[in-house]
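Morning - D-glutamic acid inputs below, output right after.
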Amino acid sequence: MSSNKRIGIFDSGIGGFSILSEIMRKVPSVEIDYISDDAFAPYGEKTDSEIIQRSELITEVLLSRGASLMVVACNSATAAAIASLRLKYPKIPFVGVEPYINVLNHSNQFPGIRKAAVITTEITGNSVKFKILRQRIDPAGRIRHVSMPNLASIVEDILESGLSQELKKKLVCELKPLKDLELSHLILGCTHYPLIAGLIEAELNLSTVSPGPFVANRVIDILSISGEKRCASFSYLSTSSMNWEKKGADYLNSLLRYSRAIGPLDKKTNRSQSNTID
Ligand code: DGL
């Protein structure tokens, strides 16, 4: 039997892949189980109690497979459910995801930073946790916040079926409230958004800030592990099929290749072409 540590990760869909990929890149010798709650997505429009219920159910499955650390790779589930999860499973460390709004205090890490905004799902934007975070880190309200009701679903559609003209239109329309803000930086407060960071940057002419590397560092700290060997195994389950897929890594790689390939909005790529791009 393997002596590697086991991590359970979940999100409402493929958004958590933006966190998972950083963990796989940085954290040595771990086995990872990822659950994508497609049967219940999107989380952004659900109530807190619905998300708490789903998060507990998914946590049970991941713990039953031996997870010794849980990553809630979803800002919405972190905002709505992480406090309840920590109470219910006091022996398990839970790492959550929050929008990295601390950019103005660390401007040396973000060259050219002048004006920033943060975008989130509606449930994250309305949450007490997010309001407290903003008050603590940005009491003067220098960072504007905008909720994006449809962006996570648009990301799912783009990565699932390719960047069609119709999806481009939907994306441009969703990003419109940000267009004239003259931002230099946009903080991505939903784990789906980094998967189309190139498209967002090209459309709004700014740089994006994603939390993936910070979350991976936190996982390394908690597990107190070091070494060169990267992630040993990765399994994937969608709640719409309820089958664990051993080919999880292939799916992740093809999706991330496509995510990197789409870049600017006028680039002509489709889902199948992307498989040839490294
Ligand atoms: N990826 C999730 C987040 O970080 C949820 C998006 C959704 O399902 O609405 O908020």
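Note: DSSP finds ten helices and ten strands in the chain.

O.
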